[in-house]
Amino acid sequence: MPITPLAPKAMTLAQIRDLISAEVLCGTDLSIKVAEVGAADMMSDVLALSKPGMLLLTGLVNTQVIRTAVVADLCGVVFVRGKNPGGEILKLAREAHLPVLSTSLTMFETAGRLYEVISGR
Amino acid sequence: MSTEEIEAMFSITGRDYTNAGRASTSIKGILKRLGINPAVVRRTAIASYEAEMNLVMYAVRGTMHLRVNPATVTLEVEDEGPGIKDIALAMQEGYSTATPEMREMGFGAGMGLPNIKRNSDQFEISSAAGRGTRLSIRINQAS
Q1: Which of A41, A51, A60, A71 is the best substitution to test chain B (most B C-beta atoms within 10 A)?
Q2: Mean pLDDT for each consecutive 10-residue tract of chain A (121 residues)?
Q3: Is the CB of A70 less than 8 angstroms away from the CB of B111?
């Protein structure tokens, strides 16, 4: 049986915000299209495995998350489990024009909701 | 492909986690402004950031030296620190001497050096235990 490739559906950041009940902490252009999402607390893994344009879901909160996202050309960061980054982290994100969202959902729930839509399953 | 030749030098301080990654962000900015292919910029930035984090986490101090010519991007990272006793072992994915503090920051999975090598076209590392480590990588702009 040939395997039918999945047709991933891109979502805008605004649609993602609504789907995962997130708050936008910084970033003004929510029309950015997202077709790839990754979830990780290890920035080493993000640096080794991410693709440009990916949206990162993470429960890790420090400035290295923003630096990692910038270096790896990610399109934005979603902090899960209701974690709120401090002013220093958001300042860094604003300087880099990197959108940052926060949701009270768990990593599993956040990833699950996005996977259902974006994977096209 | 860039036609300019530029050099830049950055000083890095060990354990300075507040500024860790700042040099690599600057390096990325320089390469972008030179109009270098985005894939080359990304590979250089990732390799540079991994090297910078290694330096901050393990060494006392060090320097990062960027050189760009129309054909290649070269990065030389030298530090004063404990050095690496067994480079072959350190190059194995998953091998790490990271402390819990480093892991809490999202690093120390034993992926850094292999990832630097993966993003480089040429990779050289040498180290003297108790003195420091020297890393030199080259990325071809046409690759």
Answers
A1: A71
A2: 66 97 96 96 95 97 97 98 94 97 98 93 71
A3: no
